[in-house]
Design brief:
Helix content is 34%, strand content 16%. The protein is an alpha/beta fold and 248 residues long.
Length: 248
């Protein structure tokens, strides 16, 4: 069984940055897992919530609805503080992600690059850094050895990808993206991706901006291969599971 794990920072990231690929591969029988580090309780757009707790509950529900649209096998929202991932204890966060990698045992992991995606959000940057360390450390028996038991063993994912793009948002600070090494034709999943983003009703003010950008981009999602079990020169890919051993 092929398995994909996506590590994000906020509810709506799963749709906005990875939604097409999540739905596309789910329809091909891939088990898909999404780990969201925060419930997005510090968002600018509040959806009528009276406080952070109400907004967190609202956004957890919206995340679940989005994951259902994208046919995500399992979606998890952790409880780290929105907007403050750069102030969290790195070893602790990576510990949580490493355990999930060892439990889910994905062949590929998708996350953000250190630039933080098209919005350059610091939480996106940190999610990518945490996920990168978890990708590397989950396979080492000398990292978080207390997690290892008869039910949980080290696991080496075979590929790590960063989401990337070929456009920037106007009037923003400069962003330097990793080059695309995989371009995935998501086809009709573009419409599903947009529908999943719109499941985040508290963020409805962002819907027109998001939809305009993704339609301009076309029916593709772009990724950068950051690490692989099979080192060598990069070749442009059209399938994230190219070269993957299903039995690992």
């Amino acid at each position: 069984m092929f398995r994909m794990m996506v590590v994000t920072a906020h509810p709506d990231d799963e749709a906005g940055n990875f939604g097409g690929s999540l739905r596309l591969y789910a329809e091909q029988g891939v088990e898909t897992y999404v780990v969201c580090l925060t419930p997005g309780q510090a968002a600018t757009h509040r959806g009528g919530a009276r406080n952070d707790q109400e907004l967190a509950a609202m956004r957890r529900s919206e995340f679940a609805a989005s994951c259902e649209i994208l046919k995500v096998s399992r979606g998890i929202v952790l409880d780290y503080p929105d907007g403050k991932l750069h102030r969290q204890d790195l070893y602790r966060v990576v510990c949580d992600l490493t355990l999930l990698v060892r439990q889910f045992r994905p062949q590929i992991i998708l996350t953000f690059g250190s630039e933080g995606g098209v919005t350059a959000h610091t939480d996106h940057s940190m999610a990518g850094i945490f996920a990168t360390l978890a990708f590397q450390w989950a396979g080492r028996s000398n990292r978080y050895p207390d997690q290892i038991s008869e039910h949980t063993s080290p696991h080496r994912a075979q590929k790590l990808y960063y989401s990337t793009t070929d456009f920037t948002l106007p009037d923003r600070q400069p962003i330097t993206f990793p080059p695309a090494t995989a371009v995935i034709d998501i086809g009709a999943a573009l419409e599903t991706k947009i529908a999943a983003f719109k499941a985040h009703k508290s963020q409805s003010s962002l819907w027109p901006i998001f939809e305009g950008n993704v339609r301009q981009r076309g029916r593709v999602e772009m990724f950068h291969l950051a690490a692989t079990l099979k080192p060598g020169s990069c070749e442009m890919e059209t399938d994230l599971f190219a070269g993957i051993d299903e039995n690992l």
